[in-house]
Specification:
Layout (H helix, E strand, L loop, with lengths): L2 E6 L6 H14 L4 E5 L5 H11 L7 H25 L3 E5 L2 H13 L3 H11 L6 E6 L2 H12 L16 H17 L4 E5 L5 H16 L5
Parallel strand pairs: 1-3, 1-4, 2-3, 4-5
Helix pairs in contact: 1-8, 2-3, 3-4, 3-5, 4-5, 4-7
The structure holds adenosine-5'-triphosphate (ATP) and magnesium ion.
Length: 216
């Protein structure tokens, strides 16, 4: 089966957690799965990720937009397209909608320019299904701070997480706009009051339905 599933949503909404759980569940049913993430997912992408997330870097808005798109172009060519051509299920933790929400709605207040740039970067490789894990920004960021305090070395938020609450609010509202624009591929789960296991069940229901997976 060929499918391209992306997990999207504000910081701390549970994308990385749910991406891993979904990959595991699909692998248990013997589906070939590629689990990957952005920014990063390739050797070059990991270097771009460092530049993008390092709190010491002062990036101009357009630099951030273009580096995210450059990372994505590399990721599509090196990882996503080959896997889809091999009829695998690709699960990607953040993709084009992250740029539309964060750089488009969050920084520029308008997604059009970011969309045009990203259309060039992805060359038509749009997701089959986008699971939008929604969360109130305060709750999402608190989950991160809780996690960080248990880390030994790096207990700070990254360059983008450090932006103020109004930025994160615009990102969240941006995602809601995207859900309206791309209704056919989007599915929304509000995770604010839900446990990880409950969210995982909802993600699974959506994936089974959209991909028409026979569970027995
Ligand atoms: N539904 C939930 N309820 C409570 N805690 C959660 C929930 N989902 C995830 N968490 C916890 O919140 C933290 C952030 O989760 P995770 O890293 O999966 O989020 P993320 O969306 O990938 O964040 P980021 O956007 O920064 O990559 C983790 O410590 C995770 O265990
Ligand atoms: Mg994550």
């Amino acid at each position: 089966m060929r499918a391209f599933i992306t997990l999207e949503g504000p910081d701390g909404s549970g994308k990385s957690t749910q991406a891993a759980l979904l990959a595991e569940r699909l692998r248990q049913l013997d589906f070939p799965v590629v689990l990957t993430r952005e920014p990063g997912g390739t050797a070059v992408g990991d270097q771009l990720r460092e530049i993008l997330l390092d709190p010491d870097n002062q990036l101009a808005v357009m630099t951030e937009v273009l580096l995210m798109a450059a990372d994505r172009a590399q990721h599509v060519e090196e990882v996503i397209k080959p896997a889809l051509e091999n009829n695998m299920i690709v699960i990607c933790d953040r993709y084009v909608d992250s740029s539309l929400a964060y750089q488009g709605f969050g920084l520029l207040g308008d997604p059009r320019q970011v969309k045009a740039i990203n259309e060039v970067a992805i060359g038509g490789v749009w997701p089959t299904l986008t699971v939008l894990l929604d969360v109130q920004p305060e709750v999402g960021l608190r989950r991160h701070v809780l996690r960080s305090s248990s880390r030994t070395e790096d207990n700070g938020l990254d360059r983008i997480e450090q932006r103020d609450l109004s930025f994160h609010q615009r990102v969240r509202e941006g995602y809601h706009e995207l859900q309206k624009i791309y209704q056919e591929r989007f599915a929304l789960i509000d995770t604010t009051l839900l446990e990880i296991e409950t969210v995982a069940e909802k993600v699974w229901e959506i994936v089974v339905q959209r991909l028409e997976i026979k569970t027995r």
